[in-house]
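FAQ: What does a multi-protein file look like?

Like this. Sequence, then tokens, then the next protein.
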Amino acid sequence: MDWIILVIAGLCETGFAFCMGKMRTAEGRARRLWTAGFVVSVVVSMWLLSVAVRTLPIGTAYPVWTGIGAVGTVVLGMVCFKEKASFARLFFVALLIVSVIGLKMA
């Protein structure tokens, strides 16, 4: 169950990065809503991470959490914000995924 909580926490980290990206171009009420989404995502993400590390080792949980957030943010950047999907970016995202899996297995 703690691994599921950790994955959800990582997805919330991706959510707050997405909201931050949307805040860059939003104005007025839309900016305030994206800001509220950012704050809620940060709070939920940190809370879920703190729940997960009650039983999972912090040395594994934190890198998994940040890895999910980083990979999710890169993918959302390419899909939603039209960021470049170069070979190098995709290679290093794959390397990050393999590294996090390796850390979990070690």
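And here is the next protein:
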Amino acid sequence: MNKIFFFLTISFLLAFAGTTPARAGQPSDSTSRRVTHVLGVDFRPAYVFPTTGFLQGENAAGRPVNANLAGHVKYGFRFAPGTYWGEVYPHALQGIGVGYNTFFNAAEVGNPLSVYVFQTSRVATLTPRLSLDYEWNFGAAFGWKKLDAETNPLNTVVGSRINAYLYLGLLLRWQIDPRTHLRAGVGVAHYSNGNTGYPNQGVNTVGATLGLTRYFGPVQRADAPALSAAVRPRPAFRPYVSYDLVFYGATRRKGVFPEGSSPVLVPGSFAIAGFNFTPFYNFSPYFRAGLSVDAQYDESANIGAHIANTTGEPSAETIRFHRPPFIEQFAVGLSVRAEVVMPIFSINLGVGRNLLCRGADTDSFYQILALKTDLTRRLFLHVGYQLYKFKDPNNLMLGLGVRLGGR
């Protein structure tokens, strides 16, 4: 999980450090040196979904782990009026945040510290001073107490000290004055280790958010009454086609289920490598969609069908495998992709099916959630996660992409 945070932090710093001035109406890198700086604090009480016996109360404390309380401090920036990105995305704000969490069971769960990148923007204007906004967070949470046979044997939920952190919220934003905004709403959060360790049950919460933000530097009139969209001419947009090529890699852990025996967690980690090629039709500055060709090699795929042990019940220390044929560990599929485009970041969603494959581990539908972070106009970092069959966690996708064609 520290790899996820490393990718996100480096990409954000490079994107911000590489900002260049841009005139309204002219495409450029998704950056500008003319920005409005923002500081914010959030308070988030939440309910923890009781998805396992441990969370339901089968723990050393003897009580449910059903509540979460978090405090967040955030720094962000927004592109100023007179820049291309400030004109096209007048409400988009992005930055870095830090959150301190308690689940009221520090001895078995810990008090994780989440560090993340975030982005928030307007969904709808309700009144001149009130709007409906969204916010997402994507990063890592440090300091979990993981499963340990001697010191923490009942924690069947957390298998890593560092876990990925994802959050999505809907918020009402009220402008107390042009520089001070009060925000309140609801959000959902997910913590897991991306199948890099076991157990990987994940922790999921839903709760409220109450926050205050303060703006410094140039303040866009869009923050006061909603005049910006009506007064400022927006750059004309004509739909076009672009092509994204992504190469990625990762590692994962693997559990197998020998016939007639108990499940076995295979020692060590397995390599993942893949690429995808996606022609996108850019419908607007905010949205593009396309059909992607996805190829992936998974060193752990279908090893459960090639267990070499012929006698006795295999364990983690004794289990052995015959190497599966390449075709059982390599798959090519097609997926439908949709992408929300904002300054610096793009959120990519995909649903696909492997077509060239063999074996139960790859012969299925798959789903992808990915964050793309612009380094330049053409080059971006890719941090993604893949599921199988809409429910089974599969692997991380950490890589680099290039955007071809377009404008």
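Q: Is there any per-entry metadata?
A: Some entries carry free-text notes. For the entry above: Residues 2-17 form the longest helix (16 residues).
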